[in-house]
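User: Quick sanity check before I run a bigger batch. Here is a single chain. Can you write out its predicted 3D structure?
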Amino acid sequence: MESPEGELERITAEFADLFIASINDQAKNPTHFLFNQWWSHAPEEVRRAYVHGIVEDPRFADLTSGEDYAPPMELDALAVLEQGTLGRVFHDWIVENGLAEQIAMDYRKFHEHLVASGSLDNMPEPMQHAVLRGFQNHDFQHVVTGYDSTGLGEIAVQAFCLAQIQFPYFGMWISIVTAQMTYLRPQSIVPLMGAISEGWQLGRAVDNIQAEHWEAMLDQPLAEVRARYGIHPDGRAPLATTG
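Assistant: Done. Predicted structure follows.
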């Protein structure tokens, strides 16, 4: 069947092998590896479309410029914030999930290291900054949306983000899990599609939060931050784990 937009570009056999490796074993070829690998195989028209879609959107100007990296955060400084503030809830999330190393990372220097090592070769520079700032912001997305750190909570966040910014990293997450459920784990179809559907619908319904500067809101009540963007997770039914 022909695409509604005309003939499809082709996926290379080499990238297909990498994609299958990610489907079969995320530990050996996790999604962020696949994202880096893809740019060497992506059709030029597809590369341009992704870059244009983000660079030309004024909401994402800081995200793609390299000016948006926040300095490393100190766990002790977050711990003294008042209960219920964004920063204190974020602190508790980091501690509960064992993520202290992530918030202590200097992402600007990390970007410089990756560039020097050649790991980002062939990836357009705006996408380099967007994915790294996205990593830095990822746990704030969990805290603000209210999706937990379970597998289904993670998928809901990825779908939420894809609904707000058409970025290939998020699409790769969805393509991997839908391939896994279709060909390897049919019993997971209902819960995974439920998480994807819920995250997508929420992302389309609320204000865009993909380029927010959460670090400037740490002392603000989380309930007020959520309400500002139209996010109200209280009372939301848990993601269904079965059909």
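The two ends are 31 Å apart (CA to CA).

User: Great, the batch can go ahead then.
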